[in-house]
From TrEMBL:
Transmembrane segments: none annotated. This is MSMEG_0569 family flavin-dependent oxidoreductase. PANTHER family: FLAVIN-BINDING MONOOXYGENASE-LIKE PROTEIN (AFU_ORTHOLOGUE AFUA_4G09220) (PTHR43539), FLAVIN-CONTAINING MONOOXYGENASE (PTHR43539:SF78). InterPro entries: Auxin_biosynth/cation_transpt, CHP04046_FMN-dependent, FAD/NAD-bd_sf. It comes from Azohydromonas lata. The lineage of its organism: Bacteria, Pseudomonadati, Pseudomonadota, Betaproteobacteria, Burkholderiales. Pfam families: Pyr_redox_3.
Length: 438
């Protein structure tokens, strides 16, 4: 598969009622509903459909949630393994098949470089193909733009190979020797397992990510959670409110049919665990002494999910096999504070501490003090601007194959209502449109 950027030779119309930026699952879902409403639009994709799945995932990558949760608009997973977990190339094929069904007005290979509000109103969208005007703009680019690498990375010895999770492909890519994986979110623990299964000595810096059961009391845990309504939990009802958008997802894996990940078991198998990375100096890595706390807190979330399921089973009078109480199979004698890279034989580091969004190309007052977009269910306070495909856009299911259809349908409904309104009403601030957001 070619990962090369191929600029488009297409041409832009001077004006569109709606410009959708991003041709992934979110942008294609928006296009599906826009076409249903008969709303003229264009979808601008910087590279090609499925680029991030195709080019920014490792070789053994697969979904963490089961295939039955793949519910793009009018295009649910229809394969033979609804309880399975699609591999990377299968995900790409699913997305490409959805695009073929939608037949969106898509232009691939076009980069949007600036979105602004001219004095005449509407939006000016500057791209690598030229500039067009739009009445509405849907930003469906996701929030994984810039790989995060800590500032202390520059202090590593020059012979230590560094890769971010977005560039990791397989164990053979790294030089022989031990590997330090920094970060214990979904990517970090799955890459750790990939390396461990290949026989590499792995060291893992464990952060604050929570973990989840995979199968509990006879059913896949995500089936229980779906039945309990967890994926429909809205951000305004979450105890953390908007802060939920900045929390790390629970870790588990779909590898080899799916299983939970207990870092304590990997420690018994030889993986070396440490707390949160703190600094790097003179070939010495220092860690915060929070390994015990991080493991305990991840286990508490794991156990709380089990308790929620237990309560649901009891209240509903369901019959389900009993499970043994959770037990810690390993605990650190002390929280290790340092690691000598050379003494441990470490030759490479994989950074798996996430990404940050890059919205500098949106020249509009649509962001908070941290650079995060402000919105209510994806509708920005900048009239005519929308965000789609982000975690917790509205519910826990937002940003996933499971929930993006509902979010896209809602936003297109708002757009259709505004396009149908008298012109003098279209430029009203967000508060005037509140009834459409309920």
């Amino acid at each position: 598969m070619s990962n090369a950027f191929e600029p488009s030779t297409a041409t832009l119309a001077p004006h569109y009622p709606v410009v959708v930026i991003g041709g992934g699952q979110a942008g294609l879902s928006a296009s599906h509903y826009l076409k249903q409403q008969g709303i003229a639009h264009v979808v601008l994709e910087k590279r090609r459909v499925g680029h991030s799945w195709r080019s920014e995932r490792w070789d053994s990558f697969c979904l963490v949630t089961p295939n039955w949760q793949c519910r793009l608009p009018d295009f649910p997973y229809a394969g033979p393994q609804p309880q399975g977990f699609m591999l990377r190339d299968e995900i790409v094929a699913y997305l490409e098949a959805f695009a073929a069904k939608v037949q969106p007005p898509l232009i691939e290979g076009v980069a949007v470089t600036r979105v602004s509000r001219p004095a005449a109103g509407g939006f000016e969208v500057e791209t690598s193909l030229g500039t067009c005007r739009a009445d509405h703009v849907v930003v469906a680019t996701g929030g994984y733009d810039i790989p995060i690498v800590p500032a202390c990375a520059h202090a590593l010895p020059a012979d230590i190979v560094q890769v971010h999770s977005v560039a990791y492909r397989n164990p053979q890519q790294l030089p022989p020797g031990g590997v330090l994986v920094v970060g214990s979110g979904q990517s970090g623990v799955q890459i750790m397992e990939d390396l461990h299964l290949a026989g590499r000595q792995v060291h893992l810096a464990v952060g604050s990510a929570p973990r989840s059961p995979r199968v509990y009391r006879g059913r896949e845990a995500t089936e229980w959670l779906h039945e309990l309504g967890f994926y429909q939990l809205t951000v305004d009802r979450h105890p953390l409110g908007d802060e939920a958008r900045h929390k790390t997802n629970h870790y588990m894996t779909g590898r080899d049919g799916g299983h939970e990940i207990d870092l304590r078991r990997f420690a018994l198998e030889g993986v070396k665990l440490y707390g949160t990375l703190d600094d790097i100096r003179d070939g010495q890595v220092t860690f915060k002494t929070d390994l015990t706390r991080n493991l305990d807190e991840a286990d508490e979330v794991y156990c709380s999910i089990r308790r929620d399921i237990d309560k649901y089973i009891a209240n509903a009078g369901l019959e389900a096999p009993e499970e043994a109480p959770f037990e810690k199979v390993w605990a650190p004698a002390a929280d290790p504070a340092t690691l000598d890279l050379r003494a441990a034989g470490i030759t490479s580091i994989v950074w798996a501490i996430g990404f940050r969004a890059d919205y500098r190309w949106i020249d509009l007052p649509a962001f908070d003090g941290r650079g995060h977009p402000r919105f209510t269910r994806g509708v920005s306070p900048v009239a005519g601007l929308y965000f789609l495909g982000l975690p917790w856009l509205h519910t826990w299911g937002s940003g996933r194959f499971l929930g993006v259809a509902d979010d896209a349908q809602h936003l297109v409904g708002v757009i259709a209502q505004r396009l149908a309104a008298p012109r003098e009403d279209r430029a009203q601030p967000q508060r005037a449109a509140e009834p459409a957001l309920t």
